[in-house]
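Hey, can you fold this?
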Amino acid sequence: MSETEKIEGDVSRLRQENESLRLIATEMRESLEHYSALIESTDDSIYLVDPQSRYLFKNKKHLARMGLRPDEILDKAYGAFH
């Protein structure tokens, strides 16, 4: 196999990998859109805290119930609000 053939084979494999990654990224983006729509459309409060009980996320309904903006809760401790 010549050096040119080897390079062409490598390029072909990289193109296939790139296409696979593009498809995975599209699927992940669509999944995130569905998840976000579900989380934001519910009337329930949904939030996420880290192992130190700091807020990572609150959905819009929970923020509205507490009268807060998203920037007011990030990295704040759960106990600061309850």
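Oh, and this one too while you're at it.
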Amino acid sequence: MKNSCKSANQTGETSYAPQYRSAEHRLGVLGRGNSCRDGARRSKPSRLARAATLAVLGLAAASIHAAVTNVTWNAELTFKETYDNNVYIQDNAPILANVTAAQAAGLKPVEANKGSFITSILPKVGLDYKPCSAFKLSLGYAPEIAFYHSTPSEDYVTHRALFNFSGKVGDATWELLNTATYIDGSREGPTFARPDDVPAIGGIPLRDRRAAFIFRNSFRLTEPVGKWFFRPVATAYIHDFKTDQRYQTTAEKAMFSYENYVDRQEISGGMDVGYEIVKKTYLVAGYRYGRQDQFTLPGASGTTLHSTYGNAFHRILLGVEGSPASWFKVAVLAGPDIRQFDSGTPAGFDRNRFLYYWDASATLLPDKSDTVTLKSTRYEQPAFSSFSMYEDIKTDLSWRHKFCDQFTAALGFTLYIGDWQEPVNRNDWIYTPSAGLTYNYNKHLSAELTCSYDWVDSKVSASVEPLTSSHEFTRNLVSLAVKYAF
């Protein structure tokens, strides 16, 4: 294949003594950083100043587009005001004696039905460098600075960066996508005074406001050969929590629960082969081999407990992808998920349970004003708040209607299921309808009003899991955002 970089394209394109630990010695991802507790955290103004300075420097650096024609850039700034009527996603008020016990242990139990206004500042800058069709570099930085006015312990700054590579050499296309996220948030996990408990699916909104580093990477190379294509693929995922871990006795757990977060990672690779059955639509067969690991929790007397849920998996996949009509796009891969677990899994855990995997999406364009999108995923992974395994099953349905150049409306519905394998008794279903209205004043200035409602149904009987009702919650979110694109 010819290297098209020989002819440059000049046009450009557009989680009772606390134990702090981290996984960077294993994963080699970041330095230890500041291990201070909430009482000694940096003030809001200094955190804001640091993040704002980084954003301004990014915007300034992007100005080099004026001197290099194969570099293009984009920048935008969003201010968002949100009201969350249940910040800690707890509906049941805790027993006062249990709150007192948790406070005596140096912890701060969460409050039930605690509402707060949230001010968010979201600058974003991106840069594309394309010297030729064989190589393109895309860089982006998008911090999120959030202030919880009634619950300041939940303030955070999330730094999101992407660095993507792609290109086309002859008929072959390749891409290497990398995203890194660092959450500068509380280093103390949430505490739930009984009868409260860790909410549905581990309480993802609480998790994603606490200190952590997340890295995701994917690679694929697509080589067409006549009606066939061959596509080697590889992915990596690392979730390194930066929160304190604490050992609790059985007596303490009867009064309150501190949520420890457990580091996890996954690496996989494989191959897809596709055959064109109709124009622009391919029947696809694929295979993946991968490895999942879950790491450590504190034990009694300063010991360290190691998870036994590490596993290797094989996935045999069949599906279809392409655009059989101008108004319809589809991509589906599904098949059995075969697991081989490390030795030492607990009694009651079915090491040979037959699992299903799927990753599916479809887009329907009934006319020029409407877009209907369906996306669904199902896969098993180690939990992030206990030694356990669960199936993560999520389905999103959305509809967007463009009334005119200025106004666009959206409706959506999400069903999110966390189904745990025994001996853990959890099966959480989160239902979320949502709606939004976008107004574009011009190509630079726009505003968006959104709302959503969460409600949870725990499918495990109280006779099996006495705290099952404490996994359930309701939550309303209403947001107004104003964005300026430079």
